[in-house]
Amino acid sequence: VFTSWLSAQRSPEEGLPAVHSRQWAMARRALMTVLLFSLILGGSLLLWGYVFKGCGPAHCEMPVCRDLLSLYLASGNTSVAPCTDFFSFACGNTNRTTSSFQALAKENKRRLQRILEAPGSWRLDSGEEKAFQFYSSCMDTGAIEGAGAGPLRQVIEELGGWPVSGDWTPLDFNRTLSLLMSQYGHFPFFRAYLRPLPTPPYTPVIQIDQPEFDVPLKQKQEMNYAQILREYLTYLNRLGTLLGGDPNKVGEHASFSISINSQLYQFLRPPEQQAQGKLFQMVTIDQLQEMAPAIDWLSCLQATFAPMSLSPSHPVAVHDLEYLKNMSQLVEKQLSKHRDFLQSHMILGLVGTLSPALDSKFQEARRLLSQKLGELTGRPPTPAHPRWMTCVEKTAAFFKPTLAALFVREAFGPSTRSAVREGSFHLCVSSQVTQLQVKMGAPEWALKPDPARQEYNDIQLGPSFLQSFLSCVRSRRARVIRSFLQPFPNHRWQVLPWGVNAYYSIPDHVVVFPAGLLQPPFFHPGYPRAVNFGAAGSVMAHELLHIFYQLLFPGGCPACDTHALQGALVCLERHYAAFPLPNGTFFNGSRTFLEDAADTGGLAIALQAYNKRLLWYRGETTLPSLNLSPWQLFFRSYAQVMCRDPSTQDPQDTHSPPTLRIHGPLSNSPAFARHFHCPHGTLMNPSSRCQLW
């Protein structure tokens, strides 16, 4: 086309002498070359533009991505400029009073609910079927209501009866106490449990600690003390009435029970003394018998921790020896004067312990007590769970091997495991230096379940739900004891597969990320990798940094430049303190500095890992309709994890308010300002930043 055009444009100079003709020919060829080069260059630019436009990050159209997009659109407020208030940009429309982790924990329980309500979807043996049968009986509220207090009265008769509601056949005090501890899981005067010691060599040992009190009966000068006593008395009277007791006798015995609890509470060491003193004291059972003789320690502990073989010389860890001495004196005094009242005290406490397995009248009494105490103490009452959640939690506690294996098969299949391994490779570079072990998903016994662990031969279901519940309590305790008696060379997981709390184990030098954490909206193999690294990746990196916490304390890092380290910490605290906070929220840098440092470092490590991932692999995707680049989506996903109503922040929380958990780390990242094109000097692109990690 250009050749024809040039031919048609010949000038009169064509008839010039040859020398001029040659010069013109050369000029014409040069012109054609320039024009052709321009055509090729222009066409290439058009082609490149088309190619790059078509080969940019594809949109993830999978259902899981659509669900995630709906969550992001519902929680964010895109009318807010991200450079001036990224919290509002990402979380401006959220009205969630719980954290993202609490919401994920609830969703994992929903998944367990779906598993338990579809037994036909699984191939189950007779042992595994018991888990589904227990859940079904727990959900059968009609049968539970129909049985009323009858099953509970039967339990009380096995303990010798109750002076208030009927015939009482006094048993030996220590026999009753032994039955309460071993058969019903109730510890009225002290707690006894088997756990590893909190200090090296971390061997399992029986530990004796203070009991769990229904009500904190503090000193009488405590504000609202009289009202708290009245509410607790009302609760105990209600329990006695439900059991058919004479109202006058019930009131007298309930008042005595409150007096016992109040005296036991006064025996406790103040919290400041507990912090200053030893965590525990090792004594033998024989020595404990001499110091607190009212309790037959050997018989009570032997019954509770069977099949362990105990002797008078067996060591136990005591957390508050003075409390046990005073408790023993109080019990001896009451046994000589008010043995029937002491029986009532133990029975009323047992009813409270068993209330989750009783009918709605007992549970409503418990709920009202929690509500009133919350109003009087200013603490939020224990939230009322829907019935399905209560039953899921109980089934999961009693049939852990079965539920763990089913949850792993359902929520942590091969594709998820592969995606987790792919992403975690870049996050765990530091473990090569520190010899850190990183475990993800579930313990080996859940990934490769052993049918023998799921037989539950010692569990007898029925005829009432309370009896099923008690049989499961005994079976679980026996399994726990047997597990501690067996050699266990590897790390013992402290979280269930459906849990959402990652943790670092100091004695084993292990970081654990359960399968429950690696779920939507934090992680999914079908998500854009920017989401997985920004959400789950930042959480994982945050947890990995816990192993370096000791370096941040004065003297914790002898090889570090102490002056520079303290300067970086002061810089970080000032950096956080400079941000405005919503009304009703507060910032205490001295309480939150460790978590603030982990948030800031975790984001930086996750971003570094994501960038490395992009160098190694292709095919990045993003979410439709958000108009965010992969890097912008990375930061948006990090913020989504932190979304929460700031007014619900617990003043004692060791984490900063959600606005600071978003603005602090993001504004400290130059990459954030670069990818969101934030002008210098805006909230999210400050003039100075802190270098800590």
UniProtKB/TrEMBL annotation:
<dbReference type="GO" id="GO:0005886">
    <property type="term" value="C:plasma membrane"/>
</dbReference>
<dbReference type="InterPro" id="IPR018497">
    <property type="entry name" value="Peptidase_M13_C"/>
</dbReference>
<dbReference type="InterPro" id="IPR042089">
    <property type="entry name" value="Peptidase_M13_dom_2"/>
</dbReference>
<feature type="domain" description="Peptidase M13 N-terminal">
    <location>
        <begin position="82"/>
        <end position="421"/>
    </location>
</feature>
<keyword id="KW-0862">Zinc</keyword>
<dbReference type="GO" id="GO:0046872">
    <property type="term" value="F:metal ion binding"/>
</dbReference>
<feature type="transmembrane region" description="Helical">
    <location>
        <begin position="30"/>
        <end position="51"/>
    </location>
</feature>
<dbReference type="GO" id="GO:0004222">
    <property type="term" value="F:metalloendopeptidase activity"/>
</dbReference>
<keyword id="KW-0479">Metal-binding</keyword>
<keyword id="KW-0482">Metalloprotease</keyword>
<keyword id="KW-0378">Hydrolase</keyword>
<dbReference type="InterPro" id="IPR000718">
    <property type="entry name" value="Peptidase_M13"/>
</dbReference>
<dbReference type="GO" id="GO:0016485">
    <property type="term" value="P:protein processing"/>
</dbReference>
<dbReference type="InterPro" id="IPR024079">
    <property type="entry name" value="MetalloPept_cat_dom_sf"/>
</dbReference>
<protein>
    <submittedName>
        <fullName>Kell metallo-endopeptidase (Kell blood group)</fullName>
    </submittedName>
</protein>
<dbReference type="Pfam" id="PF01431">
    <property type="entry name" value="Peptidase_M13"/>
</dbReference>
<dbReference type="Pfam" id="PF05649">
    <property type="entry name" value="Peptidase_M13_N"/>
</dbReference>
<keyword id="KW-0472">Membrane</keyword>
<dbReference type="InterPro" id="IPR008753">
    <property type="entry name" value="Peptidase_M13_N"/>
</dbReference>
<keyword id="KW-1133">Transmembrane helix</keyword>
<keyword id="KW-0812">Transmembrane</keyword>
<feature type="domain" description="Peptidase M13 C-terminal">
    <location>
        <begin position="501"/>
        <end position="692"/>
    </location>
</feature>
<keyword id="KW-0645">Protease</keyword>
